[in-house]
Amino acid sequence: MKALLLSNINMQPLVAFLKPWDVTCGEFNSMFLDLANPASPAASGDFNHIFCLFDSDTVLGDALYGNGLPLQAESFLDALESFCAAHPDKIVVSHSFCLGSSRWLNYADMLHPLSLRAAETGLNGRLIAIARKNPNLLLFDMEVLFRRHGEDALLSVPMWYLGRIRYSNQMFRALAALMHEAVDAYANRSRKVLILDLDNTLWGGIVGEAGPLGIALSEDGPGRCYRDLQRAIKAIQRTGILLAISSKNNPRDVDEVFDRNPMMVLRREDFACIRANWDPKPQNILDIAETLNLGADSFVFIDDSPVERELVAAAIAGIAVPEFPKHVENLPTWLLREVAPNYFGKYSITAEDAGKTGQYRANEERRQLSRTLDLDVFLRDLQIECVIHVDPVEQVNRIAQMTQKTNQFNLTTRRYEVPQIRKFLESQEHAVILLEYKDRFGSEGSVGLAILDYAGGRIDTFLMSCRVIGRKVEDRMLETICELFAKRGLNRISGEFIPTAKNQQVARFYETHGFSLLSEQADGRKNYQRSLA
Amino acid sequence: MSERIAEVTELVSSVLGLSSHAIDADASMENTPQWDSLAQLNICLAFQERFGTTMDMETIAQSTSVLKLAALLPS
Predict the structure, then answer these.
(1) pLDDT at A373 over 60
(2) Which residues of A135-147 are buried (b: 16+ CB within 10 A; e: fewer)?
């Protein structure tokens, strides 16, 4: 990352906290000019990220003291909007307006026509509208920091008058951490699965001893800590994270809790996988990885027992094992404040995310069916329906997400962010193919993606979600690709395979689909060609 | 007191991006080229965070040496 930090105040102290990012501080108070001037450093090719971190009170100018409407803030938003639209290839990171608590209207501020509270709400509404229109604008909520740490701890009044530095180091540290998380979330670097223990994690006590109705799980009293934790877990699941259980228990005891305890927020169908037995947990977790067809390095494991945590962390490479809070009352906040943003940070939630658990559960049922039938009968029986979209602009977030997250059935593993995908979608020289899948067990949503480079006559990206592997859906997508190339008058297409640690299963994909090998490089990359005649 | 001075010396050198033995207890804005007025603010930001104290404007403006900063701490 090469980032330029723009502001209307002195934000130079933040640069040290943003390491290891390579951040250059713009000229003092150059934010307006840099956004508006097409010859500015921000507009140049030197920077791919522009940080627009402004001081809300200062942007308001004299309107902060009741002298008219916040027109200066409106022109800042105009400049920000034009800049984002003019530079779709740059990621602009900015934040909500958050005015200080010292207000000239004091108690009149709620209702007065010049209310600062109302001005702030209005400006934020417009800012959000700009971000909806320009997916390259990454917004985070500044107010969260002030609520969490308090204005008095974050502001530094003497520094403000000595050097236009608004904040204390506590703020610079917290702000930098928040920005790192937000940029990771924007790039879809989220983990995929949350594996949970049961006793003293999802509920208080041990079900084998206390019984399904004797565990601590309630709407009142300390049992509410666990019920609220379950609510928070359910909320994380809604963002597209899969849940699984690894618990040392008799399966019957666990079944009884699901069947009989009315205080359970999480139901059996919320879990993509349940492993309640007496086997070692690392073994169960590897088994879950295999069942879901996902790498255990995208898992997060939560367990109250330090022994289990250590065992799992030592046995499974790449799994995240956060410390468990010492006091149960901290469980819900800990999950939402630390675990979720650290490991499951999301910037945009797609329709796929909301239905993910259902898709994985349907997969389990399909697998049961495939055990009993031969492949062709099985596929016919599935009643597969595919819809193929060309350049579906409204799916830009989902498409970027697919390039970031698909590891196994991915021929080139090129990772793209939203601005680059948008370019492909809009370019006449490229086509983006998105395949939607449905069968009699339900819809899988968008599962196949290809990016075609017409000018180069090549398939840049070809990937399928591992959820549909083995159902010959890839054949249909390749057929469509060939038709599209033929329509453009090309008589041959080329494709490549770039090996990674995870995509061995498609190493021979082009060979088995009518392509012939042209060349192979020392690093294992292979180039193929197929004639369309 | 000497322990405090050592701690402040280390903090100042780290904010200025210098190795820890590049400056000593006698270092000040006058004899250290990297210690300019913006660096002074960065030093005071780090000082307040590290020692959990708050400095007023006048103190920030005047505490421009290792010894003056160390003198702000309880012995």
Answers:
(1) no
(2) bbbbbbebbebbe
